[in-house]
Amino acid sequence: MRCSSMSNSIKRAEKNLIKNGFKVKIFDSEEDAKEYLLKAISKEEEVGVGGSKTLREINIVQALKERGNTVFDHWENGLSPEEILEMRKRQLLCDVFLTSSNAVTEKGEIVNREGVGNRINAMTFGPKRIFIVIGKNKIVKDVERAIERIKKISAPMRNKSLNTENPCVKKGECVNCNLPTRICRVTHIMHRSPSNSDITVIIIKKELGY
What we know:
The protein is α/β, with parallel strands linked by helices. The chain has helices at residues 3-19, 30-40, 53-57, 60-67, 81-90, 118-122, 143-161, 167-171, and strands spanning 23-27, 47-49, 71-73, 96-99, 103-105, 110-114, 129-135, 139-140, 186-190, 199-204. The model has no long low-confidence stretch (mean pLDDT 95). Strand 5 and strand 6 form a beta hairpin. A 6-stranded parallel sheet has the order 1-10-7-4-2-3, sandwiched between helices. The chain has one domain: Rossmann fold, CATH 3.40.50.
């Protein structure tokens, strides 16, 4: 997508996200977004982290841990299945929840598909504040394009990172498999900001995550 077209897409998404009750922050770089989050989140707050490559790419998770925040991160190395489950549960009741999204539409909708449900639950209800961080590559025209993006980009790339043998890894797109290792099990669309939730969408003008 050309620069001017992408800029217009971001502007439309920003306008409609605000119209739909979300807060929006736009940054030129990963570093600017990280600095904002470190200022917005106090050292005393407990932070839950959804499974997200984008968050790792801007290095906010490690920065919060090094600063001394209590961080509930189920991607942390060395956790047992029981500890991972506990981390996911704690994400539902933390002060701040950080995550990304599979896609955000120009109409101001937030679209995700996942296998467990901890991320979509925590980004909808529970935490006092929620920050959804996306790169410009995740902005699409509408829900139809969002689902297409998940099927052709997000799901295959995530499966590849998990080293699954799900067919989308070889095929390059979702084939609606019925395997035990399937990660596409729940589709979640926020058409408006949920009642009683404080959600800020952070858009970074870089391609990040998948």
